[in-house]
Design brief:
heterodimer; A: 230 residues; alpha/beta; 4-stranded antiparallel sheet; 10 strands; 32% helix; 26% strand; B: 306 residues; alpha+beta; Alpha-Beta Plaits; 2 domains; 4 strands; elongated
């Protein structure tokens, strides 16, 4: 890996108002271009961990560094620029249901302020990669769950961010579709995107043979390469 | 240069996008614009009326005269010299002499007095100097001038119909204040209506705002369409207000012209004119912008992705 890690957690704890401690004393680093699976029971803290990286939440204590920048020193005005460098994929897709597939995928580019022609070109390229090129004018409700998830992925990668985060991206999909989605992530990882995927689909990650961080009750209990006998 | 172009393109997109959204909910946005139109039309009508009254009253003001009745014994060269001297006074615009003969002639032409006048051997009328003060002289200065003129040798009586000028000015001041008060209240109405409409728009598009923030939209980017909606509402209200005011004027202009002819006055009920229309539209847009800006500032920060 070498160089500064792109994501680094140092003794990170997150306590929610009300006293529930979602993460405690978490330390690890993820190198540039790595693909990492985050596993653990539901409630183990996977989602909370992912939310700390684009500053959807701030840690109660400890440091989170992204590309060497301590996020504690990142002011509210600069958060949008951090998020532009992070593609996010959600279990519930979070698509705009009243917009076409094209408009959904184009949104990050419009936010960045790209020209109309450039937006069209890049949206089509992203839709091509996820295999939805023919569905530009379709509304998300007319798509299957797997297709909606692929729209979400196209939206996350259309700006070619250095970091890709996915929170249970295959949660509602059957095994064949799940594998298809995971292979898609593998492709993006191969072109250099650091990819972090939270999932509970252990059988699938055994086959993927990638690094696996295991959380239990907010603590990191294992850091191993899945599918390789210890 | 490129960034400037991107920024301008963003604004065009936000502006047109807002217009598109409003036109998709034509009935609701139309009703909001109608409320704003009425709220803007009322103060506009009042101000226009005030302006028209002031125009007309300005003519009456210029009509202020001081009549100096001179002693009957004064001969013509003496009072003509006096009139010339007064004409040079700083507060006096010009003077006019009415000789007793002219005055008598005037009485004759009025008719009915003929018989009475026949009974008189002599002309009982005094010579008269009609003094026209400088235009727009404040009432206090007029009074001052009157006192001064009373002191002149040969002046028996000086008469100024001042009270009605003072009363008129006081009434106008009262009306002006009242209109401003109404205008401020109605401007506040516009701000509140647009503010509330913007608040509802933010509520309706909550999910979209959350997603845009997740993807890295700046606050300015998210704010912009709402601000443009406010501006469009204000502009729509302004256009409607202009239409209402001018339509109302068109309905009244016939009788007003007749009245103006009867009184031999200048044109009554002048319209807004290009400048006035510009002001109404500008005020509408600024108030709309203010309303949406206040709402956006208050409600947008509450929408954060989790």
């Amino acid at each position: 890996m070498g160089g500064t890690p792109i994501i680094r957690f140092e003794q990170v704890s997150k306590r929610y108002p009300g006293g529930h401690e979602a993460l405690s004393g978490l330390s690890f680093s993820i190198g540039r271009g790595e693909m990492v699976f985050l596993t653990g029971h539901s409630g183990a803290g996977k989602s909370t961990l992912l939310k700390l990286i684009p500053l959807l939440e701030r840690p109660s204590s400890g440091q989170v560094l992204v590309a060497g920048v301590d996020l504690a020193h990142l002011g509210a005005r600069r958060i949008p620029y951090l998020r532009r460098r992070i593609g996010m994929i959600f279990q519930d897709h979070r698509l705009l249901m009243d917009r076409t597939v094209f408009d959904n995928v184009a949104l990050p580019l419009v936010i960045v302020g790209l020209s109309h022609r450039e937006v069209g070109r890049r949206v089509r390229a992203a839709l091509d990669k996820v295999g939805l090129l023919g569905k530009e004018r379709v509304y998300p409700v007319m798509l299957s769950g797997g297709e909606q998830q692929r729209v979400g992925i196209a939206r996350a990668v259309v700006t070619r961010p250095p970091i890709l985060l996915a929170d249970e991206p295959t949660g509602n999909l059957d095994p064949a579709l799940s594998e298809e989605i995971m292979r898609l992530f593998e492709q993006f990882n191969r072109v250099g995107m650091t990819t972090v995927i939270a999932t509970h689909d252990l059988a699938l990650i055994e086959r993927m043979r990638q690094r696996n961080l295991v959380l239990r009750d907010g603590r990191l209990v294992e850091d191993r390469v899945a599918g390789v006998a210890a | 240069m490129n960034r400037l172009r991107a920024w301008a393109a963003d604004h065009v997109r936000a502006g047109l996008g807002a217009l598109g959204r409003l036109s998709r909910t034509r009935l609701a946005s139309g009703m909001t614009a109608a409320v704003l139109g009425i709220a803007l039309a009322l103060p506009t009508v009042f101000m226009l009326l005030l302006q028209n009254i002031e125009n007309a009253a300005g003519d009456w003001d210029r009509g202020t005269r001081i009549s100096l009745f001179l002693g009957v014994g004064l001969d013509e060269p003496a009072y003509r010299a006096m009139a010339d001297e007064l004409a040079g006074h700083a507060r006096i615009r010009h003077t006019r002499v009415i000789t007793p003969e002219e005055a008598l002639e005037e009485f004759r032409t009025l008719g009915r007095m003929e018989a009475t006048l026949e009974l008189l051997d002599d002309n009982p009328l005094p010579p008269l100097i009609v003094v026209t003060p400088q235009a727009e002289l404040p009432a206090a200065d007029l009074e001052h001038l009157l006192d001064e003129l009373r002191g002149y040798e040969g002046v028996e009586q000086a008469r100024l119909d001042l009270e009605w000028v003072q009363r008129l000015q006081a009434i106008m001041e009262l009306v002006r204040r009242g209109i401003w008060l109404v205008a401020v209240l109605l401007a506040l109405t516009v701000v509140l209506v647009v503010g509330n409409t913007t608040r509802l728009a933010i509520e309706n598009r909550r999910e979209e705002i959350v997603i845009a923030k997740l993807i890295g939209a700046t606050n300015a980017f998210i704010r912009r369409p709402f601000l443009y909606e406010g501006i469009w509402y204000g502009l729509g209200g302004g256009v409607l207000a202009v239409v209402l005011v001018e339509a109302g004027r068109a309905a009244l202009v016939g009788p007003a012209r007749e009245l103006s002819r009867l009184y031999d006055a200048g044109p009554l009920l002048q319209g807004l004119g290009a400048g006035g229309i510009g002001w109404v539209l500008l005020c509408g847009m600024l108030l709309g912008l203010l309303g949406s800006w206040l709402a956006v500032g208050r409600h947008l920060s509450a929408v954060e992705p989790r």
